[in-house]
Write a structure and sequence with these properties.
Length: 243
């Protein structure tokens, strides 16, 4: 009887423990596959989004590169136009200078009513631009006065070397070699870093030659001729033809 009772208690206890034990659900193979597919879809969406972002950035880079190329072209074109204007002006001054002293040659008349003195409110570029306009019109007397006024008004200006150079050109046209020599020497000695320094050295060498000082002329022109610029070639040509 006791054995039967103990056996019954053991069976009931085992049944109770089995009822209280937690039950774990084992996922079905289909559920695992669905989760993997969702993860794969998410990764593909992220990769696609990154690809389109990369394409967008590349397109922006191409557009910026095109803008840079266009701006570079415009800057080069502006530089070339300025160079052409300078060469044209230099040729006109030289041509006028070759006519000085020739019987019957037409001499440039001074301008009438053209302002040569500084105007209130003028900045350096405006004053220098006015002098250049007079020079282009071959109004040499007014132009020289305007360049001298520019130098006096802006003795430390950025364009002072240019004014000295053009004064030298004007004095050569008018046959005043002493003043031409002084003007070109100002640029060579005081403004060696100016974009007019090499041109001034070439013209100064020519002035020395015209004044009969061939030793100074050759020494200076040979220094100019040592370079690889157009002005250097002009110096070599002048030496070959005259010295």
């Amino acid at each position: 009887m006791k054995v039967s009772l103990l056996l019954l208690v053991s069976i009931l206890s085992a049944h109770t423990l089995a009822a209280r034990a937690p039950v774990e659900e084992i996922p079905v193979n289909g559920q695992q596959q669905n989760g993997g597919q969702q993860n794969g879809t998410l990764i593909n969406q992220q990769q696609t989004e990154m690809f389109y972002q990369l394409q967008s950035l590349l397109e922006e880079v191409r557009q910026l590169r095109g803008m840079v190329e266009e701006l570079t072209y415009q800057v080069d074109e502006l530089k070339q136009r300025q160079q052409d204007d300078y060469l044209d002006l230099d040729r006109r001054i030289s041509a006028a200078g070759s006519a000085v002293g020739v019987p019957g040659a037409e001499q440039p008349a001074p301008g009438v009513g053209q302002p040569t003195l500084p105007v209130a409110g003028d900045d350096e570029k405006q004053l220098y631009g006015r002098a250049q306009s007079l020079l282009k019109a071959k109004q040499f007397d007014d132009a020289s006065a305007a360049f001298e006024n520019h130098i006096a008004s802006y003795p430390s200006g950025k364009l002072v070397a240019n004014s000295h150079y053009w004064l030298g050109q004007i004095y050569m046209v008018k046959g005043n070699l002493d003043k031409a020599r002084q003007a070109f020497a100002q640029v060579v000695e005081k403004y060696p870093g100016s974009n007019k320094a090499l041109d001034s050295a070439l013209k100064l060498g020519r002035v020395y030659h015209l004044q009969g000082d061939n030793a100074k002329a050759r020494d200076l022109l040979e220094k100019v001729a040592a370079g690889n610029t157009e002005v250097s070639q002009q110096a070599r040509d002048y030496i070959d033809a005259n010295l």
